[in-house]
Write a structure and sequence with these properties.
By secondary structure, this protein is of the alpha/beta class. It contains 29 helices and 20 strands. The longest helix is centred in the C-terminal third of the chain and has 30 residues, at 598-627. The protein is globular and about 85 Å long. This is AIPR family protein. Residues 236-556 form the Abortive phage infection protein C-terminal domain.
Length: 686
């Protein structure tokens, strides 16, 4: 896709998002790019906070904290929105950075906060900065723009302010294209000699075949901290990044060892496992030395890495010169990275309690939901002739790439059948599902941390080959998304809304509805919303009335609880408990047409489970037959020669080995696929 083509595509994405949420273009653009930055690991969270001083000299679009509060990310946008690509000059760039720098500099001053309405989220955030600034060791300023950065600007050097590192990053059109339209936003290239003055001695462990090779080395703690300081969360393979966010506090034991017993760190710590798509070695004194790495990903040991980095920032790097970390490095052929890295990550983290659903896009849940989304046609809304799909994007860039290489005619057909406004990402789905499951305080933690909890839910619920996750489940999830997005638009336009806390208002209002219906023995009729592809006016009005109460209450109770930043208050379970006891939800009692009894909802779920069970068995039988008798005969011989398989597993293998004279039944086929998976995990290869 050319630069001009992507620019046109980006404008469409911004327009679609703006229409879906009733946001201004700048807010929609910022939300789009910031979401991609969170998913890529460049920032850990994004909290929208559009604020501009009356004279325009101070501006901010949002913020996020990282590294247990040591790092503060501040975002500002320069959005042109025109048809032609413009160039961002150095003068314009510096002007943008000055506006957001001023917010940081003035936030601690009461006189500045007095100029902000106390009900505006910017006031609470300014108070939070004033309280926490002394503990922030790094501030990263991000400028998001749909323009192209002038080629005359090669780098923006970091600065120091009262011992605090200030760094600057421009996400221009080209960088955004890498973020949004490709799986890898920016290549990670580490030149050890350039960074640290020398290469790293290592030992060639073994070759994993044509696709990989493994090495063992010991990396200085100070080097590891410096590398993490440069590339941050992008170094952590996405599964590990999410797992770290689930862990919460940085491992105190690792930090204590570094501070108190640095010489024993190597003995106590398990080290890290890493992958790279390419490595460059040099020979020195007859030994192999690692000189360069490309696309380094830490797949196990992210907690160790983050702890060492935190000692560098929080404890001024004490003892890091005495820390050594063992590292197992697997160099994976580039075309096999997407296949092998998630598997290495899964096996490397098998000793930790990490749900299978944490291993994102390749998990059967995401594959199934993607498949359902591609085959299930949504009913045409009233006045529309064409049926469409709700496109589930299980991997970043899927939607953009799906239409990128089509002919113009096929592209038009694709766009009609898969409207951009009906794209649903993994984090979109997680936000909707967790809201309707009654976890609004978790949703308020942001997309990545909420996804951790969603992953746990999926992992715990993926039983009996995931029969709970079926066509009906997907229809209900989409209906929930339709309600969620409609309420976002309605809140944005409400006369009581003051341009703050919309995300919190929406998730809490819907969760309160679910809480009320559950107590009343009722459930929302998701099928009705799916068939209409829009919520009823009555349902939307009721949710809006609840949202107005939520808006008023969260501001009041945050102040009463001594919490300046309302968004932080909304992350607490106490906030959820307070709202359940305070907000009047009786307006929902009049929604007869939108409701069904809990018994009816349960009956529908049981029917959908039965249908999915039959579908699973048919699909399994097809796979078993397609693999052929020779496959199962080989597996049977391997199984009979060992002690891994149980007698019942051997029996079902004997049935498959006798095809075509005997054809395994549906349930037997499901069991056979489980047996095959078990065999592979135990080392068998077909």
């Amino acid at each position: 896709m050319t630069e001009d083509e992507f620019h046109a595509e980006l404008m469409q994405m911004v327009a679609t998002r703006g229409a879906a949420t009733a946001d201004f273009s700048v807010a929609a653009f910022t939300d789009l790019v910031a979401g991609a930055l969170v998913e890529s690991g460049d920032i850990q969270e994004f909290v929208p906070l559009p604020f501009k001083s009356p004279n325009g000299s101070v501006r901010i679009e949002g913020y996020g904290f990282a590294d247990e509060g040591l790092t503060l990310d501040l975002l500002v946008a320069e959005f042109d929105g025109g048809e032609k690509v413009q160039t961002l000059t150095r003068t314009a760039m510096e002007s943008c950075f000055r506006r957001i720098e001023k917010f940081l500099l003035r936030a601690p001053k009461p006189a500045f906060r007095d100029t902000i309405d106390v009900s505006h989220p910017a006031w609470g955030f300014a108070r939070q900065i004033a309280d926490q600034l002394s503990g922030i060791s790094r501030v990263r300023f991000h400028l998001l723009t749909d323009e192209v950065l002038s080629s005359a600007i090669k780098e923006i050097p970091p600065q120091q302010d009262e011992g605090r590192e200030l760094s600057y990053r421009v996400w221009d059109l080209r960088a955004i294209q890498r973020l949004v339209a490709s799986a890898e936003p920016e290549e990670i290239e580490i030149d050890l000699v350039e960074m640290f003055g020398e290469s790293l001695p290592c030992l060639a462990a073994n070759s994993g075949g044509e696709g990989s090779a493994s090495y063992l080395t010991v990396i200085p703690g100070a080097w590891l901290a410096a590398i993490y300081n440069r590339w941050s969360g992008r170094l952590l393979e996405q599964n590990v990044r999410t797992f770290l966010q689930a862990k919460g506090k940085v491992n105190k034991g690792i930090r204590k060892t570094i501070l108190d017993e640095p010489d024993l760190f190597f003995a106590y710590n398990n080290g890290i496992s890493a992958t790279a798509s390419q490595a460059e070695f040099v020979q020195q004194d007859g030994a192999i030395r690692l000189a360069k790495l490309r696309h380094l990903q830490i797949v196990n040991g992210g907690q160790t890495t983050a702890s060492i980095f935190n000692v560098m920032k929080k404890d001024k790097g004490v003892n890091l010169d005495r820390i050594r970390v063992q590292m197992k490095l697997s160099v994976i052929r580039p075309d096999l990275v997407d296949e092998m890295v998630p598997r290495i990550s899964q096996y490397a983290n098998s000793q930790n309690k990490v749900s299978d659903a944490d291993f994102f896009s390749n998990h059967p849940f995401h594959v199934r939901i993607e498949g359902i989304s591609r085959k299930l046609w949504a009913p045409a809304p009233e006045g529309v002739l064409m049926q469409t799909h709700w496109f589930y994007e299980r991997a970043r860039g899927q939607y953009a790439n799906a239409g990128a290489w089509l002919t113009p005619a096929k592209k038009r057909q694709f766009d009609i059948e898969n409207p951009r406004g009906q794209v649903m990402t993994k984090t979109d789905l997680a936000k909707v599902v967790m809201t309707f499951r009654g976890q609004p305080h978790i949703v308020c933690f942001g997309s990545q941390k909420n996804f951790v909890q969603f992953a746990e839910f999926v992992g715990d619920s993926w039983k009996d080959e995931g029969i709970d996750f079926n066509d009906a489940w997907f229809r209900h999830a989409v209906a929930g998304a339709i309600i969620f997005r409609a309420l976002e638009r309605s809140v944005q336009k409400a006369d009581w809304y003051s341009q703050g806390y919309r995300a919190q208002i929406v998730t809490y209002a819907i969760a309160l509805m679910q809480h009320h219906l559950g107590k009343a023995g009722q459930a929302l009729d998701f099928e009705r919303t799916w068939q209409r592809q829009t919520p009823s006016n009555e349902l939307l009005s009721a949710l809006l009335a609840i949202g107005a109460q939520v808006n008023q209450r969260i501001v009041a109770t945050a102040a009463k609880s001594g919490i300046a930043n309302v968004t932080e208050w909304c992350k607490r379970e106490r906030c959820w408990e307070d709202l359940k006891g305070y907000v009047d939800t009786s307006v929902l009692d009049d929604l007869e047409a939108d409701l069904v009894s809990s018994e009816t909802a349960s009956s529908r779920r049981r029917t959908a489970r039965k249908d999915q069970k039959v579908t699973n068995e048919v699909e399994a039988q097809t796979l078993v037959v397609n693999r052929g008798a020779s496959y199962w005969q080989l597996l049977l011989r391997w199984a009979e020669a060992g002690t891994v398989m149980t007698p019942s597993e051997l029996d079902v293998l004997r049935v498959a080995a006798r095809m075509p004279s005997m054809i395994p039944t549906g349930p037997q086929s499901v069991r056979l696929l489980q047996v095959a998976t078990k065999a592979v995990e135990e080392g068998w290869a077909a």
